[in-house]
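Researcher: We're teaching a course module on how sequence relates to structure. For the next exercise, students receive a sequence and then see the predicted structure as tokens, so they can try to spot secondary structure elements on their own. Here is the exercise chain.
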Amino acid sequence: MTEQMHIDEVISAAKRMDIEIDATEAAEWLDAIGVAKAEVGVEFDRRAGVYGHRVTMLDFDPTDLAYFRRVADIVGFDDEEDIDTALALSGSAAQSRVQTYPGDCDYFERINVRAPTRSAAELRFAEVLRSKALSTLNAPTHRLTEVKFGSYPVDVVIRGQSHTAGTPVSWLPADIEAGHISAVTPTGKEVEIAWESCAADPGWCKLDWIVADPIRDSIANASNMLDVTWEAPDGSITSLDGFVDAYFQEVYLEAESLPVFSKVVSQVSPDALDDYVEALEGEVRKYIKKEPKNYGKAAKRMYNVFRYSGSYAEAAYVRELFDEPTAALYQIHAVIRALDEASGEGSTINVSDILEKLDETIVDVVDLLEGEEETEIVRSLLELRESVATGDQEDRSIHVEGARQRLLNLVNSFFHEKLTGMPTIKSYMESM
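Model: And here is the predicted structure for the students to work with:
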């Protein structure tokens, strides 16, 4: 299919589904992604001081770099004598030209530990991770909500919830402070999971915060997913979770991290792109086939599948959906969760900042919706606002979940209708 045929296909589908599209911009993107795919490798933006995969850099707008770097000061790890890091934006935050209404503020960080033995590297990382968590527990601008570190050694029940052996251990702030988690097996045997015991099998490592930025007047969920490696004295690199992550969706924020980035990604599998696309398709399948369905999340992953697998017309079409006003509901859905967590018991985030953001969110809902949906969602948000203003935690979750579920239903309807409006995407979804 020629480039003009690609453009015609996108424009035809967009018009049919009443989606605004700039034909010139779409043509420029289709041309640029063809060039980027042909010139594989890393692109460095000297003016902004950021770098990433050429295809990824096409979708990054440096306008909000100052904000992302302020948040990076909270979520990022420091280089130390025996530790090198490379911090990047990930997810919708790394696609700011496309994701006009991003949900959360996601980061990805490579942490390379230089140590004489693997065991020493594991213990050193465990120490650094706990120190980072403890230093960012609570402040006027942020609140740590959870850390994923280690894997459950056996099936356990913690705080009334069951966890399967081998799944990531979820550490709440109080657990991190204590340095251990008390659990019981399904048979009633008491088990203690010590922080240090997770070092040998760190598994999927991730930290989550609520972050308030008074300069930008925003409150958002922020996360940092870690890819940890051990560098031996002979210079060899070993992943502590058995897999060095590829770099197909990150924009790295620090030019000086390029050497460690280059050193670590040299270990990425030659099949990394195929593996990446396959993993994304697994997530697409989950979000469109299993309950609760989430077509907004599916659309974000489809975009990455299409742009990296050569389905450029489909990618260009999905790209336009994220700029539609209704897509802003996806962001509002995420903001409500962040506001609820920011105002939770024990939080030191400024209440006035939370109320100001809630007022702004209510105005956004009024602007975007009408009729019964507007009435019900605004009512839930006003009830949430009242509970935040008075400090009343009772029934707050009911108001939050009510508003979030209504928003998710609207987002699902929008993305399902628009995605299936392009025949090739509809066929792709049906083939899942």
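Model: If you want an answer key for the exercise: The longest strand covers residues 218-231. The CA atoms of residues 295 and 415 lie 6 Å apart.
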